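Q: Start with the shorter request: fold the first protein.
A: Done. Sequence, then structure:
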Amino acid sequence: MKKLLSLATMVILAVSVLAGCGGNGDSSTGSTGSTTAAGKFDSTKDITVISREASSGTRGAFDEIMGLIEKSGNSEVNKLFSEAVIASSTDEVPAKVEVDKYAIGYTSIGAVNDSVKALKVDGVEATEENVKNGTYKVSRPFIIASKGEASGIAADFIQYATSTQGQEIVKSLGFVTIDGAKEYTAPSTALSGKLILSGSTSTEKVIEKLREEYVKLNPGVSIEVTYNGSGAGIKDAQEGKSQLALSSRELKDEEKAALTPTVFANDGIAVIVNKDNTTTEMTTEQIKKVFTGEVRTWDKV
């Protein structure tokens, strides 16, 4: 009887040791470090693709850079994965990635926070410096566009946004400054009236600060801004519904025929994943395959 009890005790101890050592099935495979242990990253799970709405300037720039737009005769076909989750604003993308361990998305580098992780793209980090020196290729301009040549308050606001004072604001918010800025001086004859802008949600942080500081210098001016996406803002300016359009992508040739664009900042588009994701970098080709749905799990990246 004592021998049986001793044998049973040894078996229990052996099982406990195995359990303590992760005998429950913790394994690691692939470049992303797949693991099936509770709470860990499992790279065999499906990737959640998060993109922006069709009118987004960020999406327009991202799709073009990543080759998601393909020509078909005289038209263009967008190859975005049909089951992609669509986010309606700049800040919504990192919010969705933060709560989904297997998600991937993209957003302005100015909108990246500690809740998500920005990947290196083609070996280059998504930083202000790398956008400025041209090594980080996933980048785009921030544009203010007027119907014809801007005048009055609209022209003066553009002058402020591109001035040394305006560029200090651009830099302070993590965006990339333009070259050739000059000091802004308020007009000797005080301006008064309303300025209406509409467009890119990606520009919201910098435009709100520019608006705040501009009105301090020109208290007779009020500025109304609607953040409804680059495409909608461009259309508003073309139709005369707003005086200035805000775009986070280059204007198309047909848009340039009606609007005069001015670059007031530059921005990188960060490719972001959940902080639990063990992936640290991807190539543009890998990103394209994920966003078209050709690659569906992290262990295939």
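Q: Next, the second protein, separately.
A: Sequence, then structure:
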Amino acid sequence: MKKIILFAMVVLLGAFMAACGSSNAEEGSNSEEVTIGYFPNINHVAGMVAEEKELYSESLPDGTTVNYQYFPDGSAFMTALETGDIEAGIVGPGPAMNHYTSGAEVSVVAAGSAGGTVIMARKDAGIESPEDLAGKNFISPRVGCTHDVQFETQMKEDFGMTTDRVNGEIKHVTGKPATYSNMFATGNVDVATVPEPWASFIEEEGTGEVLIDTPEVAYGETLPAAVFVTSNELIENDPELVQNIVDAHKNATEFIQNNPDEAKTIAIEKIKDITDQELSSEVIDRAWERIDFTYEVDAEVLQEFANSSYDLGFLDEQPDLSGLVDKQFIE
């Protein structure tokens, strides 16, 4: 009888331990978190669509918690990636390349979009052509960012002008693209290198006019306007997770290509949620025409752009981007 009781106790204890183990495993699966970063720019619509349609939750293992973090500029984004505050996301190619050449262990695993940069002049600023920019000031999101490099490359190579950063003729200031129209209206800046949809917003508001449109801007249609990046550590330690993340980004991009009207609606709503600015459908329609939503990325174009960044003095050494682009997850 004692043996029977002892056996029963062992069985019950084993069942209890198994139940505890099952509970812990379940808790472990639910504890996984992934944070994706992007900007409230139309070049980053893939991030907005993926968030709205919960595409990361569909692609990642069951129980994964997906968070999103929004950034005002590329430097803040790259810092968050390097410190592990985010696992992956969409950023301009400039910050990605600058941090890579500074020793950051990051990889571009896809593109986010191409095009969408417009150089705008303030209405009534007396600027009829780029030759009129001597003595004027221009604004970009950040020193050395993608749009800044595009503008300065254009001015130097095509018009022989540089900024006050190198004792040149054009004064440079920085600010958030969503504020550019107001800064034009108040006369605080003369020229802006603007990512969409803010160029189209300026056009609608009537505070500025197109000085150089996307096809004529330096690297305007060939350079990825946004790239999808992650850390080398994550690629090495969990390539399956990276594949799941990239798959969700690809699905978001294909959704944009196949459902442009719905994607535009999502963009309008997300930009309003993040920036408190509601853009009209006319603004989004105009901006859409300047952008190519693609996840394909060309390493050679990125290298050429990095060379321009070096020529402008944003990089201390001649860049070598060998190894920056890792296309295994989109092939």
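Q: Describe the second briefly.
A: The chain is about 45% helix and 20% strand. Residues 67 and 308 are 35 Å apart (CA to CA).
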